[in-house]
Amino acid sequence: MRNSAKRPSMEIKQGVRMAHDSTNLSPLAARKCSGLRGHLRVPGDKSISHRALIFGALARGETQIHGLLESEDVLNTAKAMAAFGATVRKDDEDVWYVEGLGTGSLVEPTGVLDFGNSGTGARLVMGIAGAHAFATTFMGDASLSSRPMGRVLNPLREMGVEVLSRSGDRLPLTLKGADPAQPITYRVPMASAQVKSCVLLAGLNMAGTTRVIEPVKTRDHTEKMLRGFGATLGEEMNDAGETVLTIEGLQELTAQDVTVPGDPSSAAFPIVAALITPGSELVIEDILLNETRTGLITTLLEMGADITIENERNSGGERIGDIRVRSSALKGVTVPAARAPSMIDEYPVLSVAAAYAEGETRMEGLEELRVKESDRLAAVAAGLEANGVPFEEGKDYLVVRGGGTIAGGGRVITHLDHRIAMSFLVLGLGAEKPVTVDDAAIINTSFPGFADLMEALGAEFE
Ligand code: S3P
What we know:
Layout: E1 10-12, E2 28-31, E3 37-40, H1 46-58, E4 62-66, H2 72-83, E5 87-90, E6 96-99, E7 113-114, H3 119-130, E8 135-139, H4 142-145, H5 150-158, E9 162-165, E10 173-176, E11 185-187, H6 193-204, E12 209-214, H7 221-228, E13 233-237, E14 243-248, E15 257-259, H8 264-276, E16 281-288, H9 295-302, E17 306-315, E18 318-326, E19 334-335, H10 347-355, E20 359-364, H11 376-386, E21 391-393, E22 397-402, E23 411-412, H12 418-428, E24 435-437, H13 450-457, E25 460-461
Bound molecules: shikimate-3-phosphate (S3P).
Binding site for phosphoenolpyruvate: 46, 119, 147, 194, 376, 419
Binding site for 3-phosphoshikimate: 46-47, 51, 192, 194, 345, 372
Pfam family, one: EPSP_synthase
């Protein structure tokens, strides 16, 4: 283990970051390349990175985090935790340290918390803020300010939290924490790990027993990390087959060493890029294989992808492994709605794989895509249209008709959405004419170094 007493090379201070500047775009184009080859790692998992910082700030003692994703989204959560009084720093070897204050013991931030582009950061932290009897003000960039927050504000209101907003349950807004906060039983009305996590984090920081009923299983990183930090979390199935999570508030958490595995949602881009460009073979190391996150791999295998999982092992309570992927002739499939929660962030890049697959790929149960960093269904449809890929867009479904030559030549509007930017750059790697995205800077919210990494493997960007 590395020495935690080491002098920090950097300390995160409480502060306000300007919202993403949508007037200052950085376009990038991808053109047809002759295959991607090599071994690579992608940055740490975004969901786990946010949570490691949050749990570190709520635990007593010093949490160490190895492999934290140092993207704009996660750094905003680090700043927020510092604003609540935690000490957050990293050393010269990129190990992060969080000295926490204990559950229910955070201090009132003096400034506005800017979550930039991050729905996960904003919604999880709202749960914590709402359970503390002080005021916290949240802001974000143009994308985050247009996303619905009622899904987390409604359960918080039931707990006694007051919401001050001029913009109808959208950012910017101020939460006046409940005093005392009232634990509730809450049935999550949409498949959302963010809503589940917000209610669990609120429950953890207030006296009493909070219950969350989850009709559809979503990513379980909050549950895993609660237990990993020493909390007791009840979990059972009710008669309706729904998961019921029970948490007793104000349990003490103990600082941990966390190693963040590679993000499968980031690995998705080189995986699809390798599948669609002839002559490719990549090995992507140390990727999180938690089954609440592997829906894309399942779907690509059904499409005929040559993907193998190697070196499968356990790391810090999570299944991880290396993914070997080779160029493949893909065929269209129907992706059932029930699979959506385990691949919710991967539909844009799956649509790109589908464009190169023979026949129709039908994706169902996509209503949540409408409220991501952009309306992802509309953004994907517009990007396909701009590049000559036939498709049908419904309210909650998308059909991509693949197999033809991809003309390319289109300019794709990213709408401050990192996954739209990366997906269409991948589309361009096999298209006849270059595909341009209007802004590649937004990729830094989740995957810093994306373009350099892809170029080192053989991708051609200009
Ligand atoms: C996340 C949950 C998902 C996902 C997001 C990360 C999380 O959002 O899209 O990128 O870390 O909890 P929803 O909970 O809105 O589905």
